[in-house]
Each structure stands twice: as C-alpha cells, then as structure tokens.
Amino acid sequence: METNEKELKPEESLQIIEKMIQHTKGNLHDSSFYFLLWGWIVLIGSSGQIILERFTDCNKPYLIWLIIIPGVIANTIYGIRHGKRTCVSSHLDRLNLMIWITFLVSYFIVIIFIKEFNYNIAPVIFLLAGNATFLTGIVIKFKPLIFGGIIFWAGVLCMYIIPGDFAEFVSPIVIIFGYLIPGYMLKSYSKKNA
Amino acid sequence: MLKKLDAIIHSELRLAIMSLLVSLENAEFTYIKEKTEATAGNLSVQLTKLEEAGYITINKGFKGKMPQTTCIITKQGREAFEQYVNDLKSYLKL
Does residue A14 form part of some domain? Predict the structure, then answer.
C-alpha cells in the first residue's frame, strides 16, 4: 500500500476488503499439540491402569493418572510460550478456546462430584470431550476432528452396551481413533499449510 | 441520492486495516504491516487516524523485552465498517 490518501473507486474498495479478509482466513492456530499431548496422556493412563490391574499385584493402579500433573505443566508452558509468539488472534481462535474452557469447567465439576457418579466418570468425560472435539472440528472445518467427536459419542454408547470386562478396552480405542489420529492429521495438515 | 462514503475508512490503507481488524480478535502492528505491505511510518499515521476517530484501540506493551503494539477494532469501528460496506453496495448497486 503506497499512498494513504489515494482516491479509491468503489470497485477498488471492494477488492481491498476481499483481499484483506482472504488474508485472515487460515489464521486459525495449530492446536494439534494439545490433542496429541492429552491423547497420549489419557491413552497411557487408561491402558496403564488396565495393565496394572490385570497383570500386576499393584494395589493402587489408579495412581498412574498422576501422569496428568506433568501434562498440565507441559500444557501450561506450551500455552504461555505459544501465546507470546502469536501476533494475531481470530474470532474462531477465541471460540475454540471457549469450547475447551467449557470442557474444562464441566470436567472439574464432574471431578468434584465424582462420588455422585459412583466413580464411573469415564462416559461423562468422554461425552464432554466428544462434544468439544466435534465442535472444534466444525469451527476449524477439519473433518477428522468431527469424526473424532462422533467416535467419542459412539464410545460412550459402547461403554454401556458392551458387557463388563470388555468395556474398559473401549477407552484406549476411542482415544486412538477419536483424539490421536485426528491430532496427527491436524499436525500434518498444519505443517503443509504453514 | 447516494450517501457519501465514510472519509475515515475510504482510503486504501485505512480500509485495508479496517478489513483486517473486522475479521480478527486483535492483531499486532507487525502482522498488519506484513499483510497491508505498508511502511511502518505510514501505517503508524493511519492507525493513529483510526484511533482518533474511535474506530480502533491501540494497546502498547511489551512482549518480553520487545515493544508490542496491538490493535483492536471498537464497536463504533465495526458499525462504521458495516455502514461503509452497505454504502459501497449501493454505489455498486449490489
């Protein structure tokens, strides 16, 4: 843009508006890091608990979920660093952030009242994670995440339909297909379009 | 009779700035400079004009040790831009 007071024709104005709005498209930030981080944490947690329960004498297999603590630390450090590097934020970025804040708030409410759920919160968490994943997929127009959300919902149905012992294998499968694979696809897509 | 286009927005660079900011939550000076391909001096002047008109707010701060200027479109700016687009449509008979 050379001069600031150049007389513009209406057609030129329209072209400028189109060009600038086009520039802001595809500004959505790559959020694959979070999908991969939490995908791996939940996968290690859920499959680790199954292994510890079935193949060891460990009497506190749920302690494997302490892995969430370094996850939160990594998530926070990455979020702060990434935020510092970012020089633009779109409305969709904000919407996406709000979707996951909604998930986190709901998650903590469920955790607080975990006793009321008879400690069986996996279906509720998966339902919430499915909603957030599906909505993120819609917001960023990325089909693998939309399917990921649907896989979470299907996983919740399976948890109730599939009998006893097999139900616990649903979690790792859902995490792999609902979170990790879409996460890697998003990472690859973001790299290609960087 | 056709309405006169808003003179504050109806300039090449200011229109480009407004078009960018209307689609974004906020944008840094460096980002706007890159997308509009304007010089830093010219961009500063035009941003100040938009700020004086109440169309944008400019926040100056630091990102680490580096100075950082962030621009956000105001409610008034958004309404003015929408009005400008509507006026433009009547000019173009869209």
Answer: no
**Domain limits for position A135:** 29-192
How many contacts, defined by CB atoms under 8 Å, are there between A and B? 82
What confidence tens digit (pLDDT) does each residue in A93-142 have?
889 889 999 998 998 898 888 888 887 788 898 999 999 999 999 998 89
Complex-level ipTM:
0.86
Which tens digit of pLDDT belongs to each residue from B3-62? 788 999 999 999 999 999 998 888 999 999 999 999 999 999 999 999 999 999 999 988
Residues in contact with B43: Cβ distance below 8 Å, sequence separation at least 6, in sequence order: B13, B17, B29, B32, B33, B36
Say if the Cβ atoms of B15 and A89 lie within 8 Å: no
d(CA B82, CA B94): 15
Q: How many domains, chain A?
A: 1
Residue A20 included in any domain: no
**Partner residue facing A23 (CB), from B35, B64, B85:** B35
Chain centroid to Cα A50, Å, comes to 24
Is B56 touching A (CB cutoff 8 A)? Answer: no
Cβ contact A20–B24 (<8 Å): no
